[in-house]
Design goal:
single chain, about 375 residues, alpha/beta, D-Maltodextrin-Binding Protein, domain 2, 2 domains, two-stranded parallel ribbon, 12 helices, about 20% strand, elongated
């Protein structure tokens, strides 16, 4: 049985069955594109703006800078406001594209279609993992299982030397320090991915379901954006949060190895690609590459791995905007993938990158 949330997330299925259940064929090879595809991106001039996912923000900033250097007449701005706000602004016609870690709900799709005057489509642009970022003096090699994470983020585990954390970390000297949870106060695709993982893998310990809403996590401190929650952790001894790994690197904070249904695994480009090869499927049709994740199939690789999307109009009323959106995203899913590793992301798997480029090229 699937909950109505299933079509919402980057591919997050329902609580008990987080599965694809034959909804679509797996479209990913185990290899990554790394920007090796043919890049025929042009250099349309003008300006466009995107809003949305803070998960994407770091690499969007890199892409927009590099694209501007390549195309002197083009200006692309991207503002990380959260997936929910980005989808809303796109549906109001206030952004030329949205960045999102979640697939639109039916009412959001209708609003986006109306704003576009054509069907809005989801195009995967980057892959990555939701990292567990923490601040614990003297502990730099932490391991956390899904049930332990569920207990931490529901407040059942309150101190770092709790037996559940000790069980995950045999032989590690863990302090009696209180755990300070930080979570998003804005509608967040990262929250949707994280809670989807907990709902699927630690369901008996996670009563809050899966979704982007801040109310999915009710303990600890709230902050806006991935940068906000990570800043909170950096300032708080004993802090913990979930965010894209580039924010951990920017703040010199460690990340935990995470155990889903496989072994404790660190997040790397290879481990993200391995997880997506078995756990991501396209459920959209035609050039709409909306997908689902099946966390229960991620028995290898980093178990909180995901794909992040650009949501765009299939046809723009302004031909100049269409050309620039098309050229920019063509750059992003080809040459731009080479920036993934250095920023803590993973390039799109080769087969998915090929489909993404075809979807981009269909924009008019």
């Amino acid at each position: 049985m699937k909950l109505s949330l299933a079509v919402r997330f980057v591919g997050i299925g329902a609580a008990a069955a987080v599965g694809i259940a034959g909804c679509g064929s797996n479209s990913n090879g185990s290899s990554s594109s790394g920007g090796s595809g043919n890049n025929t991106a042009g250099c349309a001039s003008g300006s466009i703006s995107g809003q949305g996912s803070t998960f994407q923000q770091t690499i969007e900033q890199q892409w927009s800078s590099d694209f501007a250097n390549k195309c002197s007449g083009a200006q692309v701005t991207y503002t990380g406001v959260g997936s929910g706000a980005g989808i809303e602004q796109f549906g109001l016609g206030k952004a030329d594209f949205a960045g999102s870690d979640v697939v639109m709900l039916a009412d959001e799709q209708s609003a986006a279609d109306k704003a576009c005057g054509s069907p809005a489509i989801h195009i995967p642009v980057i892959a990555g993992g939701v990292a567990i970022i923490y601040n614990l003096n003297g502990v730099s090699n932490l391991q956390l299982s899904a049930p332990t994470l569920a207990k931490i983020f529901t407040g059942k585990v309150k101190t770092w030397n709790d037996p559940a954390i000790k069980q995950d970390n045999p032989g590690v000297n863990l302090p009696s320090q209180a755990i300070a949870v930080y979570h998003r106060e804005d509608d967040s695709g990262t929250t949707a991915v994280f809670t989807g993982f907990l709902d699927a893998i630690a369901h008996s310990d996670w009563p809050n379901g899966a979704g982007k809403e801040a109310t999915r996590i009710t303990v600890g401190q709230k902050a806006t954006g991935s940068d906000g929650v990570v800043a909170g952790v950096k300032q708080t001894a004993g802090g913990i949060t979930y965010a894209e790994i580039s924010y951990a690197k920017q703040n010199s904070l460690p990340t935990a190895k995470v155990k889903g249904l496989g072994d404790y695994t660190a997040q790397t480009s290879d481990t993200v690609s391995s997880a997506l090869a078995s756990g991501f499927s396209i459920i959209g049709s035609g050039n709409n590459l909306a997908g689902m994740l099946d966390f229960k199939k991620m028995t290898t690789g980093y178990p909180i791995s995901t794909v992040s999307y650009a949501i765009v109009c299939s046809q723009y009323s302004d031909s100049g905007k269409a050309s620039l959106v098309k050229d920019y995203l063509d750059y992003a899913v080809t040459t731009g993938q080479s920036s993934a590793d250095q920023l803590g992301f993973a390039p799109l798997p080769t087969a998915l990158a090929t489909r993404a480029k075809a979807a981009v090229d269909s924009i008019s």
